[in-house]
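Record 1 of the preview.
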Amino acid sequence: MTGQVRAQVLVVGGGPVGLLTAAELAGQGVRTVVLEAAGAVSEQPKATTLHARVVQSLVRRGYLEPPAADGAVSRSFHFAGIPGLSVAAPAEEPAPILKRPQADLERLFEARARASGARIMRGYRAVEVRTGPDGAQVTAEGPHGPVRIGADYLVGADGAHSLVRERTGIGSSTAPATVAALAGEVTLADPAALAPGWHRTPRGWIVCTALPGGRTYLRVLDCTGAAPDRRPPAPEELRRQTARIAGRDVPMTDIRWPSRFSDFSRLADTFRSGRVLLAGDSAHVHFPIGGQGLGTGLLDAVNLGWKLALTVRGLAGPRLLDSYDPERRPAARRVIDNTRAQLVLMNPDPFLDPLRGLLGDLVEAAGPAGGYLGGLISAQDTVLPARTDGASAWEGRFLPNTRLATTDGETDVVRLLGPGRPVLLLAGERGGRYLAEAGPWAGLLSVVRTARADALPEPALLLRPDGYLAWAAGGGGLGQALEAHFGGRPQASAARRGGVRAGARGAGPGGPLPPPHGYRRSARGRDGRQLGEHPRTPVGGDVQGGQDGGQHHAGQQVPQQAGDPLGQVLVVGQHLGHLLDSGEGAHRHRGGLLGHDVRQQLALGLGPFEHVPDRRLPAAERRGAVEPGGLHVQ
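->
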């Protein structure tokens, strides 16, 4: 007999992305069920790196501790094994890099989801998916027999081979593998034989990470071509391939968790189809360099969670979910481009050495704030597409953590976003004028008032639960912004359940905020373009599948062949274009991201190479990520 389960939202896939999505939903009172085939969290080494915007987002949602120290922090990174890149986080924010094993994150998210009432069904594998205009029905096989789960909404977080994506007919663009890579946990007979870091040889790369107990996590990259199949490697294959790339024998014992991966990439044609939404690897797959896959998926979950929760609870119209795809798909597309550019630069062919040298000089010239690449890999350059007419310069930007003194004591942006509600920040008497206009959204908003008008960049700000600014005074009516961002006026019955909740009065640090660097709506640059338009095809441009299985960007075919280094240089060209275009800003605004004043952090929050994208393009959200680490380049 088939069991029956009913949920408001069913999440297929209990990895970090699915569990975080479930925690976000359940925390807002949504009846949530998670299906996960694995009986327990896997201890196999996986991703460990969280970059700045991911850390900042998880802190705001209460999964990580807020920063304890004041002052901006920078960390050393690399791009494609090229050392010297610095990435900075603004004052009052966490350090821009956090090392946390994926297994620990999964346990954290699962505990939070369960505590909030989510049902985690481990040991159940989805085998059939049916969808319709009113929801979805999924059949799963488990230890107690088959079960059928009905839900109003379905989230596919079931990995690269997503059943949800396949059965719901969501297409995708793919690019074939061109390299072969192996990974595994080993004990080196001589730890000095491969020091922790990145080792480049004429045959490929070896990346070593020290683990507790004298163990080493080994990754070996062969740039000569793709593996003939995807079968799991035997331990001996990892030993043999390490010796081949190193050019000498590297004795090792106790080889565990051997795995195979490549640069195969996939991007779903849409992240939403009716009541089905994709997140994480089910929506995007790319070469796993620098932990950006984990971070991109977690940012999917943070973006989707509050939107889906408000929709299910009737506190926003169904159009709110329409913003998920145009905000997150370009972000994933940009990571695919970013990782492919890095992989081209990692090709050991001497033909590419001048290009690596040039990029190394540009990285070094960026200085402590990191420039364009610093914002790219940390995702702090993200600017979301505008959703209102006559949008303010601040709309779509991430609000740095800001201290606000109130009659109840000091608070800040991190604490205000903890409950997961949109926040209306009103400063001084001018800000208070917007209170009545927010009335129809009484069940949606939390209102916080400060006494001084200079506590915020504008006298009134509308802050999304994920930390991005949905509106600022001077950018049109607040009511229009609320309707545009939250999908129309909330249902009356739901609105009556809440009430516009006003916080205490207070004050923040003084001084007016300048407009964002580079942003002038009516100004024209010396080449005639309106400032804010990029002269080149956006890095996150549309990706379409070609007949040859490759990807085509803005009408240009990007070569896939590993043996065509001249053609592969084109993949890097757009990133170099951003670097060169932004050089003047680096000199004018050096150190802007390191300032302690929140007004400077918001205005220059993308670093000295910041570029405000053309807000008419969905690709306005573009990001990427890379991993830090000591480098031993041979």
